[in-house]
Amino acid sequence: MRWLFLSLLLVAAPAAAQTLPVTQLSAGMHLIRAEVAADFGSRSQGLMHRKSLAPNAGMLFVFDEAAPHCMWMKNTYIPLSVAFIDAQGVIINIADMTPHSEQSHCASRPAVYALEMTRGWFAQRGIKPGAKLGGLNTAPR
Fold this sequence. Notes:
- This protein has three helices and nine strands; from the N terminus they run αββαββββββαβ.
- The chain is an alpha+beta fold.
- The protein has a single domain, classed as Protein of unknown function DUF192 (Jelly Rolls, Sandwich), CATH 2.60.120.
């Protein structure tokens, strides 16, 4: 009976928050603390169910291959902007996303990375497509 109770507790308990590796990136003089989602599971979870992000914090999605990857906001509470980035670290395009929306936002050409930050973060700092991010070469893969 005791094992049944413990099993039920484990099933009913919410999943523990995932712990992801963190890397430091730079966009010009701006430093970014990015959690790295480099496998299918962590990319699928992304920033879902989070209520806030620290200043200058975001999530870097590392994809297995260059492709016109897409992002959406299902189960995501924080308004976000996503920058799609090529293999050389150059921002391809940036899209603003609405919480809980299932609308797809896609890279306009093949991307290897996507960086999600609080909505407006890129615009507030004058970071636009064509800007190059530093630190991608040291990000966990």
